[in-house]
Fold these 3 entries.
Entry 1:
Amino acid sequence: MSPVRTKKVPVTLDDGTLIYVEVETLPGERQDVVGGKPFKFDDVSSALESIVKAVTKPIYAAMPTKASVKFGLEVEVKEGHLIAALVRSTGTANLEITLEWEQPKPEKS
């Protein structure tokens, strides 16, 4: 098995802000800046938005009075693009979900 290393790559956000993201690097994968330009964060943002929608839909259906969801994303370079990895074939991912229901307070007469 090849060793996994990390590398910081330049990334631009939608508003043009330049940040550096630490990504996993695997031998043979392209981690350099494509065409001399930083990577765009769009694919990671889209993935995050889709994950949040998929997780919140059943939570809204359960109608808790309070909910929290905790998860992590790994950012990788694949075929010259940034991708967000929630579950990988070589590991597992974890969603920590807390739902709470409170009894309504009785009305005073």
Note: The chain has a mean pLDDT of 78.
Entry 2:
Amino acid sequence: MNDLFVWTADADAQAVMQQVLSRHQAMGIRAITFKVDRYSGRDSGMIKDGPELTRFQKNTFKRLVLLLDHHGSGREKESVETIHHQLSARLDRVTWQGNHLAVMAVPELEEWLWYSEDAMLKCLSISKEEMKDWNGAYAHKTGQSVEQLRKEQPKELFEHLVLRKKRRKPTLADFECIASSASLKQWQGSASFHAITERLQQWFPAG
């Protein structure tokens, strides 16, 4: 039986988690057997049907992580804690009790990326000066600080940065590169990423 099944609500999160789990030493866990898959129903669909559909993985994997975004879930007016509790209760009912974790990235997964700027600079071939200037200009345009944007609109800020440098939208390759080279210690600043790391270290301790 495999160690871990991770179900994400979009392809970007899938790409990130595949890279992160392959870096078991940086995560502080032992090497594990895992599969990361994407649910086609997106964030709202994951909340609607996700826990119940995971019963089909129960005979193949020992542990389960559900990962979705708060933004786009259709439950943005509810607290993340309330949604976590509800998802967890439903996972308990489909026999994952004690072996699951439901996590919402707030507001979206791109929030993780901003905790390791060096990886973003490297993967996007951007200088520190360019990042400062472009982020500053975008912040001025929106009437917010760069720090506010990183916390409240991380996806929009990231897309702006990629558009300015690459003249395109972010690709899966961008997410894979950043996740493969980011400081996962710095990513611990994100509450959602920290929650995943902490649970994986409990389930799969190193050494």
Note: The mean pLDDT is 97.
Entry 3:
Amino acid sequence: MIEAALYIGFGSFGVALVMNLVALVRGPDPADRILALDTMVINAIALIVLFGMRAGSQVYFEASMIFAMIGFVSTVAFTRFLLRGNIIE
């Protein structure tokens, strides 16, 4: 039963990643593209967690935490670059 739920989750988050890729390409505004990238990071984290559940290994959960921290910092840095033109003051 859990295997079926995992495969449904893989499919759902995979479709969400493709939809976010379309939003990234078609985004009329840089802010929309930043939101699409941030949502892609969140969906990738969910896929890593699902794969960790399927594999039964703790390593994937730690990798998802590192990926979440890098995604957050990169989103903040890119937004700051678009708003101010520089990242470090």
Note: The chain has a mean pLDDT of 92.
